[in-house]
Structures are given as structure tokens and as C-alpha cells.
From TrEMBL:
<protein>
    <submittedName>
        <fullName>YAE1 maturation factor of ABCE1</fullName>
    </submittedName>
</protein>
<keyword id="KW-0963">Cytoplasm</keyword>
<dbReference type="InterPro" id="IPR019191">
    <property type="entry name" value="Essential_protein_Yae1_N"/>
</dbReference>
<feature type="domain" description="Essential protein Yae1 N-terminal">
    <location>
        <begin position="41"/>
        <end position="79"/>
    </location>
</feature>
<dbReference type="GO" id="GO:0005737">
    <property type="term" value="C:cytoplasm"/>
</dbReference>
<dbReference type="InterPro" id="IPR038881">
    <property type="entry name" value="Yae1-like"/>
</dbReference>
<dbReference type="Pfam" id="PF09811">
    <property type="entry name" value="Yae1_N"/>
</dbReference>
<keyword id="KW-0539">Nucleus</keyword>
<dbReference type="GO" id="GO:0005634">
    <property type="term" value="C:nucleus"/>
</dbReference>
Length: 88
């Protein structure tokens, strides 16, 4: 809607209306600000959740990999000793 149509529709209204709600623009700005903060909070929460899940997954995988490599290292060492003893 163009501003001309708005002015034409409101031509019978007093622009200096003393009874007008002065809090409307403030309330509207407050609602917009709160809506933005809610979206930002949601995004921050999702990002934090992703980071936490990623870190926990890394920690678990690192622990499992380290345990597996210790077992492989022990097996490899045992195998080298056995091969060395039976080679001579």
C-alpha cells in the first residue's frame, strides 16, 4: 500500500491525537527485539549442541582408537618376539 493511500484513508484522523497510544511504537520495537533475541538464542543453542556432540564423539573415538592401538602394539611386539625366537 502506498503512503498516499494510507494518508487518504487516515485523512479524517487527527495526527496530533492526544489519546493515541504512545506505547505502541515502543511495544512494537520491544517485540521485534525479543523475536530477534529468541532466534539468536536458538541458533546459539543449536551451535553449542553441535560442538558438544562433536567433542564428545571425538573423545569417545580417541579413547577407542587408543585402546585398539595399545592392543595392536602389544600383539605386534609379541609377534616380533615370537618370530625372532623361532627364527634362530
Amino acid at each position: 500500500m502506498s503512503w498516499v493511500q494510507v494518508v487518504a484513508n487516515r485523512s479524517n484522523e487527527d495526527i496530533f491525537d492526544e489519546d493515541a497510544d504512545e506505547m505502541y511504537p515502543v511495544q512494537k520495537e520491544w517485540n521485534n527485539t525479543m523475536r530477534k533475541r529468541l532466534k539468536e538464542g536458538y541458533r546459539d543453542g543449536v551451535e553449542a549442541g553441535k560442538e558438544l556432540a562433536l567433542q564428545e564423539g571425538f573423545n569417545q573415538g580417541y579413547r577407542q582408537g587408543a585402546e585398539l592401538m595399545v592392543a595392536c602394539g602389544q600383539f605386534r611386539g609379541t609377534l616380533k618376539v615370537v618370530l625372532h625366537v623361532y627364527a634362530y
